[in-house]
Amino acid sequence: MSNLNILVVEDEDAIREMLMMVLEQADFHVLAAVSAEEALKVLAENRVDLLLLDWMLPGISGVELAKRLKREPGYKDLPIILLTARGEEEDKIRGLEIGADDYVTKPFSPKELIARIKAVMRRSGKLGESGQLSIGDLMLDAEQHRLTIAGKSLDVSPTEFRLMQFFMSNPDKVFSRTHLLDQVWGRSVYIEERTVDVHIRRLRKLLAEFGREELIQTVRGFGYRFSLAE
C-alpha cells in the first residue's frame, strides 16, 4: 500500500495532523493541503490516488472543489472522500450527487476511516480485492462470483452481483439511483434510473426466499440503503 498517495485537504491543523498520522500508520503516502487552491497545486505536481477532502474550507469549499475536479477529464476518475460534520442525510446525498465516492462524518474512528478508504480504492481498482465480504450470514465471494445466505447460493445476474457487492461494501448508507448507476453500471453507460429499481426488486425477491428482503431498504426521496437494522 505504500505506493498509494492520499491528499488530505483540511484547514484545521489538529485534524489534518491527526489524519496524516493515521494514514501514515496504515502505510499510505500522505500529501497535505490547507485549501482548495493549494490542493490544486499539489494535484498538478503529484500523482494522487485518493482525495480526502473537508466539506468546509476557506475560500473555495470542498464541495465546490469536488465538483470542479469531477468536470475535469484528468481528475474525473479521482476517488474523493468528503469529511463532513454535517449529519443530515440530505447533505450526505448532496455530497454523493456531486461525484464524491464516499463521505465520513466527524467525529469518526481511525479504523472506520481506513476501512472506507480501502473500500473506495478497491472499487476504483487501486487496491486488490480481498475476495470475500461477509455481513451476518450473507457471504459474497468475488473470486468465485458466488453469493450465499447461510451457505445456500442465490442465483443472481452479474449486474445484481455487482450491486450486492457495492451494497455490502457500504452498509447502512443511503445511495441515490444516480450514484448506484455510476458505481455499479459505470458513468460511461447511459441507462435509465428506473433500471436500478428493476434490479432492486429482483434482489429483494431472491432475498425474500430467505426472509431477508428487508436488507435492501427504500429511503423515500433519496434512494436505497443496505442494512441489517430494520
From TrEMBL:
Domain of life assignment: Bacteria
Main location: cytoplasm
DNA-binding region: 130-228
Keyword vocabulary terms for this entry: Activator, Cytoplasm, DNA-binding, Phosphate transport, Phosphoprotein, Transcription, Transcription regulation, Transport, Two-component regulatory system
InterPro entries in UniProt: CheY-like_superfamily (IPR011006), OmpR/PhoB-type_DNA-bd (IPR001867), Sig_transdc_resp-reg_PhoB (IPR011879), Sig_transdc_resp-reg_receiver (IPR001789), WalR-like (IPR039420), WH-like_DNA-bd_sf (IPR036388)
Modification type 4-aspartylphosphate: residues: 54
NCBIfam families on file: PhoB
Official protein name in the record: Phosphate regulon transcriptional regulatory protein PhoB
Organism per entry: Methylomonas rapida
